[in-house]
């Protein structure tokens, strides 16, 4: 595994959600494209066979939605209120942040927010605003000749500045039955304050995952709990209490040979635990 840290410019974005900088504007012009690979098992998959594709449960797939579906009614499952530090419900879930609407000003700048791009999940009816549950088993397969990937940290939101998520990828097998070695892409904050320095929004890293992999995040404020794209690993020893945490995969162009993916990690939909962490990163080819 090769990981190369690379700051894209000298002026970092405000790390806690709400800041803008030249980095965010620069990144929005780069237009990274992600790969996620051909399935080797009988679960659902999506993308051309020669590309890297997301693999999920039977019946799951990329679901269409619109800004008009954002009403905090838990359909899709991630469309739910975020509680702020004053105990007031706000419209700051991942859908509002991806579209720059509600109480979420968007990713870096509104111009760089990708919009209402399809999410991977169970069937969702946008016309009736029903369905859209999480797929609890999402992993990826990387083609043997694919280039390294590049991840960009697009957003970090939390109501408690020292409690910022760590996010990265983990090794697994073709069946998605193993929670293997974890590889940090972006460092999170720490509790108590000052115990860790989080990476700034706008930072990029290059990485080459194993043939089969998934994504994880660590909520540092909740006993360091770990949440995986394969959520059956969320409550395993020695770190527990992550059963309500989740990651959702969005794709801007999932039918392309080299699609772009946005990986969103939240704590959890309908967050009411006092920090309400939300992390979003974009993953693409290193040469794009």
Task: Reconstruct the topology from this structure.
Elements: E1 3-6, H1 22-30, E2 44-46, E3 53-56, E4 61-63, E5 82-83, E6 89-90, H2 94-99, E7 119-121, E8 124-125, E9 130-131, E10 139-141, E11 149-157, E12 166-171, E13 182-186, E14 204-207, E15 212-219, E16 225-228, E17 246-251, E18 261-266, E19 278-285
Antiparallel strand pairs: 1-14, 2-3, 3-10, 4-7, 5-6, 8-9, 10-15, 11-14, 11-19, 12-13, 12-15, 15-16, 17-18, 18-19
In total, how many beta strands? 19
Strand content: 25-35%
Helix/sheet category: mainly beta
User: The biggest beta sheet, please?
Assistant: 7 strands, antiparallel
Evaluate the radius of gyration.
17 Å
Elements, N to C (H/E): EHEEEEEHEEEEEEEEEEEEE
End-to-end Cα distance, whole Å, is: 20 Å
What low-confidence regions span 5 or more consecutive residues with pLDDT below 50? Answer: 1-43
Average pLDDT score = 77
The number of domains: 1
Structural shape: globular
User: How many helical stretches?
Assistant: 2
């Amino acid at each position: 595994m090769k990981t190369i840290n690379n700051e894209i410019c000298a002026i970092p974005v405000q790390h806690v959600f709400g800041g803008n900088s030249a980095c965010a504007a620069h990144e929005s012009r780069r237009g990274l494209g992600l790969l996620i690979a051909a399935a080797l098992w009988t679960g659902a998959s999506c993308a051309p066979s020669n590309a890297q594709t997301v693999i999920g449960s039977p019946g799951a797939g990329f679901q269409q939605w619109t800004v008009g579906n954002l009403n905090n009614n838990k359909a899709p499952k991630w469309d739910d209120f975020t509680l702020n530090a004053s105990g007031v419900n706000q419209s700051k879930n991942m859908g509002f942040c991806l579209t720059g609407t509600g109480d979420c000003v968007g990713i870096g700048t509104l111009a760089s927010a990708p919009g209402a791009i399809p999410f991977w999940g169970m069937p969702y009816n946008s016309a009736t605003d029903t369905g859209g549950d999480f797929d609890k088993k999402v992993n990826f397969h990387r083609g043997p000749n694919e280039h390294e990937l590049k991840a960009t940290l697009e957003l970090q939101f939390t109501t408690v500045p020292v409690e910022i998520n760590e996010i990265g990828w983990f090794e697994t097998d073709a069946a998605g039955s193993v929670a293997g070695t974890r590889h940090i892409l972006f460092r999170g904050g720490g509790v108590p304050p000052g115990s860790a320095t989080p990476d700034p929004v706008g930072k990029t890293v290059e990485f080459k995952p194993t043939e089969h992999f998934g994504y994880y995040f660590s909520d540092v404020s909740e006993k360091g709990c770990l949440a995986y794209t394969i959520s059956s690993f969320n409550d395993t020893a020695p770190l527990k209490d992550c059963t309500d945490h989740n990651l959702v995969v969005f794709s801007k162009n999932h039918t392309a040979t080299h699609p772009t993916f946005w990986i969103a990690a939240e704590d959890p939909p309908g967050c009411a635990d006092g920090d309400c962490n939300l992390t979003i990163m974009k993953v693409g080819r290193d040469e794009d």
